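[step 3/7] fold_predict: job queued, chain A
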Amino acid sequence: MAIYFYEGDLPADVSFGASVAVDSETMGLNPHRDRLCVVQLSSGDGDAHLVRFRADDFSAPNLKRLMTDPDVLKIFHFARFDVAVMKKYLGVDTAPIYCTKIASKLVRTYTDRHGLKDLCAELAGVALDKQQQSSDWGAVEISEAQQSYAASDVLYLHTLKQKLDMMLAREGRTDTAAAAFAFLATRADMDLAGFGDMDIFSH
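[step 4/7] structure written:
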């Protein structure tokens, strides 16, 4: 595994093919308060590319181009949060989207454990180390341990998607998943507008 670390944006010559695994690290879980610090990406080849942002510069034209490229599928785990954060700080509507958490909830109905660690253990046979999850991602220097943690969050998403796609097809829920993925951008907009805790479909 190789980890490539960049300040502020992806190099223009980095390509991910037809699909890219994406995750983000922030200062917390409130997009209005907690800024975007790192975006990590992988083409599923075992390598990870990390883009670190300073507090005052989110220009990143190459990353923005990738996030909005209609020909590149963006694979997330819990896309709802990452898409909202990228809308808030990068000003982009990320699309198209695939979310392994949503896919898991649609087909792994035999469990209530849908975290990335649980999916990697069952479907990829990998034990993730989550020790750095709550570390300071806004620090002046991002440690090697933090970089390894960030990379691990995207290295296996292609494998998970492949396994989950088979389960979705088996259970006849592929179209339902696609509709849910298509709604994610709107769900993220609602979160940013203050409707995060409200079920608008309830009575």
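[step 5/7] annotate
The longest strand covers residues 19-26.
The CA atoms of residues 190 and 200 lie 10 Å apart.
exit 0
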